[in-house]
Amino acid sequence: MFITDFDEIMDILDTSQSVFLYDTAAISVHELAFFRYGYQLPNEFIQYHPMIITQTIVDELRLSEDADLRYAHFFSQFNKVILIDEATFVHYFHEMYSPKQRSLSKYQGCAIRSFLTIQSLAEAIKNTPSHQIETGVTDLFNTQFYNGRNKGEYSLLWLSNLIRDIFPKLDINFIGLDRDLYRIVDHCYYRFDSITSEIRRRARVRIFSNDLMLQARVRKGLPIAEIVDSYRDPARKVLYREINNGITEHTIVEGAMDNSLFIELLGLRRVEVVY
Q1: 126-163 tens-digit pLDDT
Q2: Which one of 113, 155, 238, 243 has the fewest beta carbons within 10 angstroms of its own beta carbon?
Q3: Tens-place pLDDT, residues 23-76
Q4: pTM of the predicted model as reported, rounded to 2 decimal places
């Protein structure tokens, strides 16, 4: 079901233009829509690109208990599904950088960047002696997230930093529903960027939500009325920008809207969904 071979993963990432990092909450909702109705909204965007999950995501989905193989059937729709265990992250740096001390320094720096919003964890990683980095960073990660809260989201952010360090031209696309995923990705990649650095960025980092994918469908002239109830929770607050006189406002607005209003506003080009 999953591609786990190190050399095969390296070859795939080296020859790809874009990857999709899939969060637990999104997979759960998308699997249900796929199981009940055969809907494949995310695959309209993933297409032939590789989709990646981490071991943390596998654990959160409890795939070892998937006796009916529902998730196996769901994942079979995608062209390439890669599983990368957080414990193996360091091996990718050993492959790309030499000598070993340089690869460990790169790996350590990548982890620090990933956890800047958790100051105590970032400091602990920064202060880890070089001879303990290979296993110490993963141990600190597992200890920090022992209760599981936001572990999946941070595992994907950490993975994205790894990929951007080793494959800087590779576009990164997150697929999620959780607001915390948006928050940490936005903080890591956009919060402190200058306009110059944003223009010069070599590859894109994007965050897909169900609302954003439904908006894209409308703009391509495709219907969403039949599938919107399967992919939208009207109580979930959507992040969007208002469009007035054809001009998209810079300020992001947060608000819930029922599905009929959502479809109407998209059709009238009154809103620009952010997440």
Answers
A1: 999 999 999 999 999 999 999 999 999 999 999 999 99
A2: 243
A3: 999 999 999 999 999 999 999 999 999 999 999 999 999 999 988 899 999 999
A4: 0.93
Tokens of 10: 């390296």
